[in-house]
Amino acid sequence: MANFLADRGFLDGATLYWLDQQGIAFVVPAKKKMLVHRLACSEAQGKKGHVQSRTRTVTHGHGKRKSVEHLTTEVVGIENLQLWDAYNDPKAARKARRRGYESKPLQAIVVRMWENRPATPGGTVVFLTNQQVRTPLSVFDDYDGRSLIENTLFREGKQGWALESIPQKNQRAAVSHIFITLAMVAITTAYREWTRREAEEEAEASSPLERRLGRTDLQEPQGIRRWRRDLKNAVRDDVIVFQGPSYGIFHVMEMMVLAGYRLRRLPEELGAREAIFARYGIHPPP
């Protein structure tokens, strides 16, 4: 493990000190009541530390409704903060109330502005880290990447992939349950990639495969829940017909025409009665 990113619920000085001794970089948000949080904010207001900012451009909407927004983020890196007594070897931390005790130094990232949202007096976000903060945005981005793990893996796994209760409350059961779920994700992703490539190779824009998969924009990424919903909507009118070891997938109206029934109206995408028979190389009955 090279990096440890956690929320403030895992803010434990002894554990973070151990990570530092193992050479593992960490980034965790400080609690607002901590002295180290107050000191970091005070030094940032006093124009101390390493200031770094950036502006990124975001486009919203299309055509006449298209708009451009410039989002600015500014952070300050503060070095050598020693006001967190718990950040030390557990044996040494027992002497925290004695005269002359010094905790181990930490660095902090004070967020002055986060995508145009300025920090408020009581709501300034401060991150604690053991990394160098001369370029504080790099450390800030490390923690911001945690949201990708939280939203695209954990939340998607729990909600989109039904990663619910583990069979037993022990490590082996939890690991097995997680890996089975990840195996399902890998297999389904491989299938989706295969169908995407198959659809791209289709010459016609309205090929049966694209129509059944409901993919109007093959380059647009989709989460599993949206993909399932779109797939369900795309195939809700389809039927599977078995004949011995063979089978075929047809639109229900298409199947009715091939079975000899005359229908008053047909969906436009199916074409006329004669076109349906011609599609399968069959001469329409009189």
Automatic annotation (TrEMBL):
One of the record's GO molecular function terms: DNA binding
A Pfam family matched in the record: DDE_Tnp_1
Positions with biased composition (Basic residues): 47-65
SUPFAM superfamilies: Ribonuclease H-like
GO biological process: DNA transposition
Lineage: superkingdom: Bacteria
Name under which the protein is recorded: Transposase IS4-like domain-containing protein
Organism: Limnochorda pilosa
